[in-house]
Specification:
By secondary structure, the chain is α+β, with helices and mostly antiparallel strands. It is built from six helices and nine strands, in the order ββββαββαβββαααα.
């Protein structure tokens, strides 16, 4: 069993549920070191005083905040510890909200919450099942590793899941970041065909159907280079569709999507027909064998 990275209590009303926090996700990136080109010499990073050029030990480094004009306010590590939220062991839920009301933009990282005390496992199950029945999530704040987090606590089948969230002022305004955006498309033929395409391409969400093909290609590249081979991938870059060709492109896309969907459905029907035929044939063979056996006995 994995070790909890945080432990404490979920508090809602006068109820306290002891829980542990566990990582729910892991990334599968390939690690690379840095080398000087043409050599096997590793590149190392050092903390160096830019004035003296001498390396500075970690314990002698402090933080400074730029206040403008080349001036910095220096802050000592113990000063940050004094003002940091206390090492709280409480996930204090102050409200429950409908899950559908939360914009996914606010979600940051997922963790599992597991019961840390077998004697209080029933209270864990009670909260989980109540959240599932109401389709709600508890909004809470907690402290982990010297930082305060906003979080949602929701039910996901057998387990409680905690999602750390961005605070409202951490989400950027798209108008400020992107400038003027296109107006509404209007209820024209293009919009109608775009809706038809979305409907034709719609399906069930199957996470296992999607794989990280880029990481696989990196692995193949590393393996090939290790064996002295060369790997070449030739793919054309996509080009923007000309506005005058959008309707034709949408129409062709809808037809292609519908054709692909009908092709997927056909093999399943054929397979079912074949099975029935095979079953009939085998049954016929068995009955023939029985008849010949009875004839022999009569003889």
């Amino acid at each position: 069993m994995a070790r909890a990275i945080w432990s404490g209590y979920i508090n809602f009303g006068l109820v306290s549920v002891p829980v542990g926090l566990y990582s729910a996700t892991q990334e599968h990136e390939i690690d690379f070191h840095q080398f000087q080109k043409g050599t096997s010499d590793r590149i190392r990073y050092k903390r160096v005083n830019e004035r003296t050029g001498r390396e500075v030990p970690y314990e002698k480094i402090v933080k400074g905040h730029d206040v403008g004009g080349g001036e910095y306010v220096i802050v000592e590590p113990d000063e940050l510890d004094d003002i940091a939220p206390g090492k709280s062991r409480s996930l204090e839920i102050d409200t429950f909200v409908d899950l559908d009301e939360i914009d996914p933009m606010h979600f940051q990282k997922s963790y599992y919450l597991g019961p840390s005390d077998p004697e209080n496992a029933s209270s864990y199950a009670l909260l989980r099942d109540a959240l599932a029945k109401t389709n709600r999530a508890g909004i809470a704040k907690f402290v982990m590793r010297g930082k305060e987090y906003l979080a949602t606590i929701r039910a996901d089948e057998k387990v409680l899941v905690l999602e750390t969230m961005f605070f409202a002022d951490e989400i950027r305004d798209p108008d400020e970041e992107l400038g003027e955006l296109p107006r509404k498309a209007g209820a024209g033929k293009q919009l109608s065909m775009a809706v038809d395409l979305i409907e034709a391409m719609s399906g069930e969400w199957k996470p296992s159907a999607y794989q990280d093909t880029y990481t696989e290609r990196v692995k193949d590249l590393v393996k090939a280079k290790h064996q002295g081979k060369e790997v070449v991938y030739a793919e054309e870059e996509p080009q923007a569709t000309n506005p005058t060709d959008v309707v034709a492109a949408l129409r062709a896309s809808v037809e292609e999507a519908r054709k692909a969907r009908s092709t997927k459905k056909r093999p399943a029907k054929k397979a079912a027909t074949k099975k029935t035929t095979t079953a009939k044939k085998s049954t016929a063979k068995k009955s023939t064998t029985k008849k010949s056996a009875s004839k022999k006995k009569a003889a």
